[in-house]
Design brief:
CATH superfamily: Tetratricopeptide repeat domain
Radius of gyration: 15 Å
Shape: globular
Number of strands: 0
Strand content: under 5%
CATH topology: Serine Threonine Protein Phosphatase 5, Tetratricopeptide repeat
Helix content: over 70%
């Protein structure tokens, strides 16, 4: 984790891949996968990041931070992509934020407000 905090992402990825090879506990593996997703997010590799967040959630569906990061990536994609598909991306972001908020009520206040403003919160 020190390599990651020092922004030495290549080195951090090597350590995380090694940890994945050694770790057998699904819960611990979920956090390793989540951290790999964080590095790919930091590097702007959003497709890879989403893949690792999904893999983390398969092992531990109680990672609100993974749902939040996935929502942020979807929300970011809206600004970069085709306006015709923007609504679908907004809907996907909303679903991820709803899951994050359901797991940790009181967190993700800005996302909660966005859901209310866009009338996506039930």
């Amino acid at each position: 984790m020190s390599a990651q905090s020092e922004r030495n992402y290549a080195e951090a990825l090597q350590y995380y891949y090694e940890a994945m090879r050694l770790e057998i506990d699904p819960y611990d593996r979920s956090y390793i996968l989540y951290n790999i997703g964080l590095i790919h997010t930091s590097n702007g590799e959003h497709t890879k990041a989403l893949e690792y967040y999904f893999r983390a959630l398969e092992r531990n569906p109680f990672l609100p931070q993974a749902f939040n990061n996935m929502a942020v990536i979807c929300h970011y994609a809206i600004r970069q992509g085709d306006s015709e598909i923007a609504e679908a991306w907004f809907d996907q972001a909303a679903e991820y934020w709803k899951q994050a908020i359901a797991l940790t009520p009181g967190n993700y206040i800005e996302a909660h407000n966005w859901l209310k403003i866009t009338r996506r919160f039930e």
